[in-house]
Specification:
lipid metabolism, Enoyl-CoA_hydra/iso, binds ligand LH6CIYWY, isomerase, delta(3)-delta(2)-enoyl-CoA isomerase activity, 10 helices, 280 residues, single chain
């Protein structure tokens, strides 16, 4: 049964409470025993992040916060692809008003995910380039399938990862690795990502992935939630404050930079190369 928000959760016979939003670009199931919510991205074919799916992720995070969820597993319904990152169509030949709304919604989504009070795990069950990698890096723990790739590849597209993307990576793998990864726009295979600490565990399949994600969340069972949440807040405070302080400028940069003819040319060529590849 479709419900609009978590406060009206329906308890199903298996103890899993479910709700889904009207547009169904995400779905959420809350485990009634553990209070852990699994948020599935489900925008076929590749979970690229457009305005609509970002709005749904953002409002879901608000609902989860309000409903005091005990933990979040962020994953994808399209096994093989966690998320292809930002929908390039939102940046290519854009309508500037929509482009602004899109970027503002991405900012909001990142702030909510990065600062959520509950523990979060990305179950990366497929490729996670660029914005997909950003979502995963914003969680506290990352469990990833074998034979996938992850990274901030923006420079390869002729675009620049904003400061808060960079900080999200730097806070996980450090300055040296981030500089090397970002200047090359490097995508890491699962084992490489593990070796530099970008991810925490490698799993064979979804069952193992869910179990490992749940095991991470279980570590907090005996930690008072308030103490945990405040500690996370203090640790992430500077990164979040920097972004919030500069978000107007960040929006301006995105629009100014993203609409430059040279950037549009790169994006157009990149889209063509993706389309050619999918038709080959
Ligand atoms: C001075 C400057 C100061 C400050 C700077 C301020 C702002 C900076 C400006 C901009 C920053 C913007 C940041 C952007 C971050 C991003 O997230 S950009 C997106 C990057 N994403 C990618 O590069 C991923 C591209 N996709 C892939 O590599 C593969 O598709 C993937 C491995 C995910 C899946 O492969 P596969 O299963 O083989 O699928 P296909 O490749 O066949 O794709 C299926 C169809 O989906 C389309 N598609 C794929 N990715 C995207 C996408 N990201 N957006 C839109 N569409 C996508 C693809 O074209 C296929 O379409 P078709 O079926 O042919 O119609």
């Amino acid at each position: 049964m479709a419900l609009r928000n978590l406060s009206k959760l329906k308890i199903h016979k298996f103890g899993i409470r479910q709700f889904s939003k009207e547009a169904n670009l995400v779905s959420v199931a809350v485990n009634d025993k553990t209070g852990v919510a699994t948020l599935n991205l489900q925008r076929p074919p590749v979970n690229s992040l457009n305005l609509e799916i970002l709005s749904e992720i953002s409002s879901t995070l608000t609902d989860l916060e309000k409903n005091k969820t005990r933990g979040l597993i962020l994953t994808s319904k399209n096994e093989g692809i966690f998320s292809a990152g930002l929908d390039i169509m939102e940046m290519y030949k854009p309508d500037v008003e929509r482009m602004k709304k899109f970027w503002t919604t991405l900012q909001d989504t990142w702030i909510k995910l990065y600062s959520c009070s509950f523990p979060s795990v990305a179950l990366i069950n497929g490729h996670a380039p660029a914005g997909g990698c950003l979502l995963a890096l914003s969680c506290e723990y990352r469990v990833m399938f074998k034979n996938c790739t992850i990274g901030l590849n923006e420079t390869q597209l002729g675009i620049v990862a904003p400061q808060w993307f960079i900080s999200s990576m730097r806070n996980v793998i450090g300055q040296r690795q981030t500089e090397s990864a970002l200047t090359q726009g490097r995508m890491f295979k699962t084992e490489e990502a593990l070796s530099i600490g970008m991810i925490d565990e490698v799993v064979e399949n979804n069952e193992e992935g869910v179990a490992r994600a749940a095991a991470f969340l279980k570590r907090f069972e005996r930690i008072p939630p308030m103490a945990r949440a405040m500690t996370k807040k203090y640790i992430r405070k500077e990164t979040i404050e920097n972004m919030v302080k500069n978000r107007e400028e960040d929006l301006k940069n995105f629009v100014t930079y993203g609409t430059q003819p040279a950037v549009q040319e790169y994006l157009g060529a990149y889209l063509q190369s993706l389309k050619k590849k999918s038709k080959a």
